[in-house]
From TrEMBL:
One of its GO terms (biological process) is carbohydrate metabolic process. Residues 1-25 form the signal peptide. InterPro entries: GH, GH39_cat, Glyco_hydro_39, Glycosyl_Hydrolase_39. It holds the Pfam family Glyco_hydro_39. It comes from the Eukaryota. The active site is at residue 181. It comes from Pocillopora damicornis (Cauliflower coral). GO terms for molecular function: hydrolase activity, hydrolyzing O-glycosyl compounds. Keywords: Glycosidase, Hydrolase, Signal. This is Glycosyl hydrolases family 39 N-terminal catalytic domain-containing protein. Belongs to the glycosyl hydrolase 39 family.
Length: 502
């Protein structure tokens, strides 16, 4: 047995065996007993994803993604320990493709796209590949059946090319997804599309990918909150029993169902609205009960560029952990009957001055515009580091009991056993504790007595505690104490990076 007291000062702690967290104001106490011998279910790492959108004009996407800023950004994202972020969901990828009609034949140039995909793969990342964009502005009307056939041919050629360039084993792991938030006509960027045209577009995506290889998966519709956007239900009904434009058969494959439900600043808002929507899906189209669910923009608050103080410090990290633990508790209570495969934060953007830390990003970017050549520096925010701490969790959840009555605090505990044919006998227990009052800014000190039962009888047991709060791993506070310099000196960057470590 192992035990000890920890003051959770309102934010996130991860422990390989023990973990803590902290804040200020009221004092609360509680007890947590972790039983290492009682596995209560699987712990899938359903959060290992981020995303971003290139700036306008997105037709110049290639200039953005190959600039030093984004090269560094993706290198950082790929460097999260234990591959804690695996997917980057990206808008407008097809604007990296060019195409033209030559001698009555469509000719494609995938050079920029290949370079971008290679960049992701080299950083141990894979794309969330939205079939979104307009190569060379070739398309104008998705209600035009001739253009729909051309779109299918584009998707087929895309799939075959990617398989040839990167291999089927790699590409079949990617999530291909329909056009992002199709309820917003501005997202089609001048393309004419009715609901009928959108459904034909989806059929073209499905058939094109199948023609490239049947193992390539496709989902959608990636709308905002479904009850506010009828096109979500139009696609589900079409895939269920509508007529496939190309085959004339009833129904179209839908390998996963995606939507964007955000928190409006409150953690439970996400889970509450998801349960409503999933219940409606089960009632209206029962066969989709077993279809994987993706909330691939499940952020605590809409608007990536909004400057919020809590996005700069450990408050953001804590609410993200809180949301994930709430979901894992939900899975447990439902006996893991819900196929909920992905909750992605859309926070892979790069910040813009003067808002270095306070946007929905993983990193703070400093553009050193007074230097020649131009220099860019990044500093890790607590939200970046917490993804590495979450990656320490194992794949089997273990029992935690009697946490007390403080709703701001929570815990998830796990073990990681060695693989059957592995040459190591390492055994790990990891627990993540959080203290979060969402984005309110109201904080409390919580004293938690943590007891760990039934550890394996070994002589070489190591306990490691990581703290992540506004005193540990918070470079934003240090930056403010420096006077919030727009262009920190080398010495100041050194100090900031010392404070980005948990």
């Amino acid at each position: 047995m192992a035990g000890g007291n920890m003051c959770l000062k309102g934010l996130v702690y991860v422990v390989l065996v023990l973990l803590a967290n902290r804040v200020e104001t009221n004092s609360l106490s509680g007890n947590a007993v972790v039983d290492a011998s009682k596995v209560i279910g699987p712990l899938e790492h359903f959060w290992e994803s981020t995303g971003f959108c290139p700036p306008d004009p997105h037709q110049d996407f290639h200039k953005f993604i190959f600039a030093n800023d984004e090269l560094q950004n993706l290198a950082y994202v790929g460097s999260v320990p234990n591959n804690g972020i695996k997917q980057v969901r990206i808008h407008w990828l097809l604007d990296l493709v060019s195409m033209k009609l030559e001698n009555d034949k469509l000719v494609y140039n995938f050079t920029f796209l290949d370079k971008a995909m290679k960049l992701l793969i080299e950083n141990d990342l894979r794309p969330g590949f939205e079939l979104m964009g307009n190569p060379s502005n070739f398309f104008s009307d998705f209600d035009d059946t001739a253009q729909i056939y051309s779109w299918r041919n584009l998707v087929e050629s895309l799939g075959k090319h990617l398989i040839e360039a990167f291999g089927l084993e790699e590409i079949c792991q990617w999530n291909f997804e329909s056009w992002n938030e199709p309820e917003n006509k501005q997202h089609f960027d001048g393309l004419h599309v009715s609901t009928k045209g959108y459904l034909m577009y989806y059929d073209a995506c499905s058939e094109g990918l199948k023609m490239a290889h049947p193992s390539l998966r496709l989902g959608g519709p990636a709308t905002g909150y479904p009850d506010k956007h009828p096109i979500f239900w139009s696609l589900l009904q079409h895939c269920n029993n509508g007529t496939n434009f190309f085959t004339g058969q009833r129904g179209v494959r839908l390998d996963f169902i995606s939507f964007h439900i955000k928190g409006q600043g409150h953690s439970l808002t996400i889970l509450h609205n998801e349960t409503v929507v999933i219940g409606e899906i089960a009632k209206l189209i029962p066969k989709y009960i077993t279809t994987p669910i993706y909330n691939d923009e499940g952020d605590p608050l809409v608007g990536w560029n909004l400057a919020e103080e809590w996005r700069a410090d450990a408050t953001y990290a804590a609410i993200v952990v809180k949301i994930l633990v709430q979901h894992q508790d939900w899975f447990l209570k439902s006996n893991f009957s819900i196929r909920y495969n992905l909750l992605s934060n859309d926070n892979g953007f790069i910040s813009y001055p003067p808002v270095h830390f306070r946007q929905r990003t993983l990193l703070a970017r400093f553009q050193m515009n007074h230097s020649h050549p131009r220099k860019v520096e990044f500093v890790k925010k607590p939200i970046f580091n917490v993804m590495g701490l979450l990656a320490l969790l194992g794949n089997q959840q273990i029992k935690v009991s009697s946490f007390g009555e403080n709703e701001d605090c929570g815990i998830v505990a796990s073990i990681l056993k060695p693989q059957r044919h592995c040459d190591t006998n390492d055994w790990e227990l990891a627990a993540v504790l959080y203290n979060s009052n969402d984005t309110s800014g109201r904080t409390s000190v919580s004293e938690i007595n943590l007891t760990v039962l039934n550890l394996p009888l070994r002589q070489d047991v190591a306990f490691v505690v990581y703290k992540l709060d506004n005193e540990h791993g918070n470079p934003f506070q240090m930056w403010k104490e420096m006077g919030s310099p727009m262009f920190p000196s080398d010495e100041q960057f050194h100090m900031l990076r010392l404070h980005q470590v948990t």
